Amino acid sequence: MRPAIVLLSGGLDSATVAAIARRDGFAVHAISFRYGQRHVVELAAATRVARQLGVASHRIIDLDLRAISGSALTDDLDVPKGRSAYEMSQAIPITYVPARNTIFLAYALGFAEVSAARDIFLGVNALDYSGYPDCRPEFVSAFEQLANLATKAGVEGSRFTVHAPLLTLSKADIIRLGMSLGVDYGLTSSCYDPAPTGEACGRCDSCQLRLRGFEQNQVADPIRYAA
Fold it and tell me: Which has the closest alpha carbon to 127: 81, 70, 174, 168?
């Protein structure tokens, strides 16, 4: 089995992507990040998902994006709650973490080069998302080009491919696909502002998008929500 590096946050999307990579015959080497996020409970979810999917390896990398600041996910700022779909589509929200996917992919690229993996998977989505600039197809394409220009392996002709299989899927499509692949979404965590005991808030953008996806599939979301 060819090795692949998969960015695994512990959320719904990344769990689905890990299952896709496994379906496609890759040995999944998952990496997660403890980056100073307020929703650090997602790392426990990533560990559960990695175990359920039987990945080849899973490592958690420590870095502190609080040093950059500028996001409600790393700073003492309020996470937006109860926004409508229209409001979500109007501007990049304060939950955007500056350059996060670029930084995570850079780590994944370094890991890929030293582990002889030439495939990197991530769960970005350009339909049901919060308007983040690093979740667009242009970004994925540009990073793949960078990967093949900026590495010894790429210069020597061993090309990297960045896979973003969820780019054009709705949240409902993603959930339907994941269920067909046996993903246990009860193990995942998507909330931006969970309770200290782990329950999802149900009102942040991520929770609302997730709940809508399950509703469109006429399936109950298996995770716990705060009352």
Answer: 168
